[in-house]
Fold:
Amino acid sequence: YQRRVRGAMSDSIVLYSYWRSSCSWRVRIGLEMKGIKYEYKAVSLLKGEQCSASHSEISPEQQVPVLKIDGVYLTQSLSILEYIDETKRGTNSTSVRPHQEGTKPCNFSLDCFWNPTPSKHENYKQDG
Structure:
């Protein structure tokens, strides 16, 4: 999912995240692997902050992680990893998705690391 940033364009990269979310961990690790600097904005799932009007505006699914980058808001950790791998060199050329040149990967290394069904304590979603 992608949504354009309203207002002035900013070069800053912002990760909206919850510290215990395995999907957010995946994105943080990917950003660190690429050497990409970013601002961290905490979203407390236990307090229901993902359901707030301000967060719902950038993530209609009311989930984390959300990455603000290049004038868009990206959601879904694997899509975020694919985007940064294809558009950002960072301070090193490490790929967060190892694959043969010229082919699309059939899996992502970080996806394999954290793709089992997360427990409710890792990815808590509060309805209502």
